[in-house]
Amino acid sequence: MEGGPPQVKKTEFTECWQTVWKTPYIMRLALSAGIGGLLFGYDTGVISGALLYIRDDFKSVEKHTWLQETIVSMAVAGAIIGAALGGWLNDRYGRRKSILIADFLFFVGAIVMAFSHSPGLIIFGRILVGLGVGMASMTAPLYISEASPARIRGALVSTNGLLITGGQFLSYLINLAFTKTPGTWRWMLGVAGVPALVQFILMLSLPESPRWLYRQNKEQEARAILDKIYPANEVEDEMKALQLSVEAEKAEEGSIGDGIIAKLRRAFGNVVVRRGLYAGITVQVAQQFVGINTVMYYSPTIVQLAGFASNKTALALSLITSGLNAVGSIVSMAFVDRYGRRRLMICSMIGIIVCLVVLAIVFREAASHSPLISSFESTHFGGNSTCPNYLKAPDASSWNCMTCLKASSDCAFCSDGDNEYLPGACLAAEDAIRGACRAERRTWYTNGCPSRYGILAVLVLGAYIISYSPGMGTAPWIVNSEIYPLRYRGIGGGIAAVSNWVSNLIVSESFLSLTEALGSAYTFLLFAGFSFIGLVAISLLVPETKGLQLEEVEKMLEKGYRPNLLPKCFKRRKDDSTQVSNNS
């Protein structure tokens, strides 16, 4: 999921606190808009837990992994469209109205999902929420940035990134809170409507971005807002700075053309922008193909694959991954300016690859050592209760729990009553038979099998998040904010962002199908392979931009570069940026 807060110096946070203490109106603007980040994080995280209970209520969802993937990934598909529409809405109607529209979509989507009586309606609600996510992902930080004093802008914008990861963590807490409540997933998904409504009401009383107003030739309205943000002796200077900035921006836009096709043609025809896009797209695609959103969207399901059958237990253990991701986004602020973007990403990728390989080994061992199937246990509940695939199998004596679950979506494993690691029963996955199994204080498994390796899998999953969050979780977005010439920053960043969302969609739409076709172990091994390719690509294509002015970055890309390969992790060096070459 995605992004992270811009990196700022510690002194900037001190100044930020002092400034907002004197002028609370600034924090009111930032936090009101930042609720969009909270909604972004909540709506992308809540589905991981809600899906467990949606499967229980709709048998079509439980039996078809493609339907589960569609419910999860349609929010991503909506976000791609929402991000594209958001850019146009921001320019045409302003930042404030765009946030209001996103809130409306969030609210309606939450209500539709909460009252859905079919998987189709849930999918429709997810698309609406996705549209809101796409708009909020670009509009909220833009509004905060343009309505903040320049000296504390980074610190205030970073609150949006923190609220995104905070929203994901909150979604897991909400999921856990409603596990015993009638309606479970309906409450989980419907609660998102509350902060959307709160933000809608707050934004009605807040002004438009002063920068957008100035671009619309509404200078007096822009000045009135600046009067509330800046001390009286600074307002005139800010008006002059705003005038120069907008005029320069319009001139740059004119130099690259008005139409999207003209902008794209000029971008790809410019060697500096093209090399910047190689780096920007590489890090955005790599961020998704390390498999991060398989964890953020499906972590309770992964925990169940590791052998924890209880929905509540799976949600509780999933809090570890979400909490570590939130903490990692804060930790990155202390490292990214100290050690550099490129080095942090490379070290992060090495850690990710190691964790994915270990995770593959753990799941492989868990599958091969899963409990055997007992023919006595399988007929214990009556002949009609046994899974038909087991009865027809010529080699049924060699079956274990994993063989049973993979045989068909109509098969389930009922553990031994005294010890879940002893041979159990392969039964038909029907409600009445599940009830009979649980009535004897046995555990019912449909996704994973009892395993002594389960807790190890959760610990490695936590290590994976620790490796990912401070590096690949935040640095790709920072690189994309620094790698393009100013006049191409919008189009370059937009192309890279779309590549991120599309990669996100591919991964989230295919994960469960991959685990079904390849098994959990080989799926994680596949992502380790993708991560290795990403590591090589980052090493070859992505320069260090830490501490460089935009003009220096442009000159570096113009000459070509050959980055130092695999720099030592967490060792400060004076120059780890690039080595000039004549490569194109």
From TrEMBL:
Any single Gene Ontology cellular-component annotation: plasma membrane
Superkingdom in the source lineage: Eukaryota
Pfam families noted in UniProt: Sugar_tr
Keyword vocabulary terms for this entry: Membrane, Symport, Transmembrane, Transmembrane helix, Transport
Keyword Membrane appears in the UniProt entry: yes
Primary localization class, coarse: membrane
Transmembrane parts of this sequence: 29-54, 66-88, 100-117, 123-144, 156-178, 184-206, 314-336, 342-363, 451-469, 521-542
Molecular function terms, GO-annotated: symporter activity
Keyword Membrane attached: yes
Mode of membrane association: Multi-pass membrane protein
Domain Major facilitator superfamily (MFS) profile: 29-546
UniProt subcellular location: Membrane
Database matches in InterPro entries: MFS_dom, MFS_sugar_transport-like, MFS_trans_sf, Myo-inositol_Transporter, Sugar/inositol_transpt, Sugar_transporter_CS
Family: Belongs to the major facilitator superfamily. Phosphate:H(+) symporter (TC 2.A.1.9) family. Belongs to the major facilitator superfamily. Sugar transporter (TC 2.A.1.1) family.
Name used for this protein in its record: Major facilitator superfamily (MFS) profile domain-containing protein
Organism: Ilex paraguariensis (yerba mate)
